[in-house]
Amino acid sequence: MKAPPECHQCNFCIRLQQGRLGFRILARSFCKRVQKSIKGRGRVVDFQAEKHLVREYYAALDAADSGDIAGVLGQYISTDYLWRGFHPFNEMTDSIRVASEFWAPLKTSLKRLQRRQDVFMAGKNETDGFDGSWVVSMGHLMGLFDEPWLGIAPTGKMAFLRYCEFNKVAGGKIVETAMYFDIPHLMMQAGLNPFPPQTAAHLVQPGPMTHDGLLFDAQPKAEGDATLAAINAMIGDLGTWQLGLPLEEELARTWHDDMIWWGPAGIGATYTIERYAKQHSGPFRAAFSERSKTNHICRMAEGHYGGFFGWPNFTARHDGGFMGMPASDKLGEMRVIDIYRREGDKLAENWIFIDLLHFWKGLGVDILARMQEVPRT
Predict the structure, then answer these.
(1) Do 162 and 278 belong to one domain?
(2) Which GO terms describe its biological process (predicted)?
(3) What is the pLDDT of residues 250-272, one digit of tens each?
(4) What is the DSSP string of 298-360?
(5) Residue 272's CATH number
(6) Are residues 317 and 176 in the same domain?
């Protein structure tokens, strides 16, 4: 009997095939089950069309002059469109507004803008039953800071705007975008310190330690499934901060000991579970109570990378000191993007984008207005 294609012909199967007819039928059935299992483990889910569309869009957008941006967006973006961005931009439903209010002013201020991607991936959205397809890009937008932006005075030097963007693709168009960016990080590069000293490190943040975050090619489905499982396990442990374990023990369940948490300006980046607990997670939990359940608009993974965003992700009562600010006893909204890198069965790196301008404005502190009174350092 000739072995089926891709069959590994284990000794058990060979012996069955050499036996009576009933055993030969069993052998064929066994072989098919093994082959199906092998193929399932290596199965690749293809988001290449969605990735190609977004990469084409980025190439056109990055090359466009300020006056041509609306035309580029009109080519790639659906007429029924929703764009979400950090304060002061918030929600827009018209690509022309996105072009005129966000992209054109940004490209005028950060001249010769370059997109320096560290992570690029795509996947199905778990929160809608794996129906919608999303493409994610994370990195920095770098340019020469030659003109004011949002009242931030230019430096005439290189500047990096941390960003992460989720784009939902349907019918060959981008129909929804979450574009989150670290405005305080840009302020600090311009010599402005809108917050008191932060608990963790301030720096221009690198991409993954493994330098493998640009997933332009299709990835095995099993790897994305494992990453999503690791993210969900972490979310499950996080809950509403009521797991009951000591903080470092809780974190060790889903994080590697040498994890890196690349936090937003005003909080900073921190390394190892022990320092993350001391420099962010512990102080953060001490500053808030009544944390709501987590709500995500999109949660997805591909390969060793995954992430999510919400609008907001959760609310919590600010009844302790946070970021050097006194307690307000008000409920605050956290609009967040998290991007993760998995290594083995645990999380190794995490890049976080929090709309701190929106959060503090909701608590009565207008950071952009305050910035006008803060001298450069």
Answers:
(1) no
(2) polyketide metabolic process
(3) 999 999 999 999 999 999 999 99
(4) EEEEETTEEEEE-SSSEEEEE-S-BTTBPP--EEEEE-EEEEEEEETTEEEEEEEEE-HHHHH
(5) 3.10.450.50
(6) no
- Cα separation of 164 and 351, whole Å? 9
pLDDT tens-digit readout, 8-36: 344 444 444 444 444 444 444 444 433 43
Contact 69, 104 (CB under 8 A): yes
Pairing between β-strand 173-181 and β-strand 158-170 as defined by DSSP bridges: antiparallel
**Paired tokens of 128:** 């809608």
Residue 28 forms part of a structural domain: no
- The residue behind tokens 């083995």 is 344
State how far the Cα of 177 lies from the Cα of 98, in Å rounded to an integer.
Answer: 11
Which residue, among 325, 205, 195, has the nearest Cα to 266 in the 3D structure?
Answer: 195
Distance CA 16, CA 25 (A): 9
Alpha carbon of 16 to those of 4, 5, 13, 25, 33: distances in Å? 14, 18, 5, 9, 15
Instruction: Indicate the pTM of the whole model.
Output: 0.87
For residues 311-322, give the mean pLDDT: 95
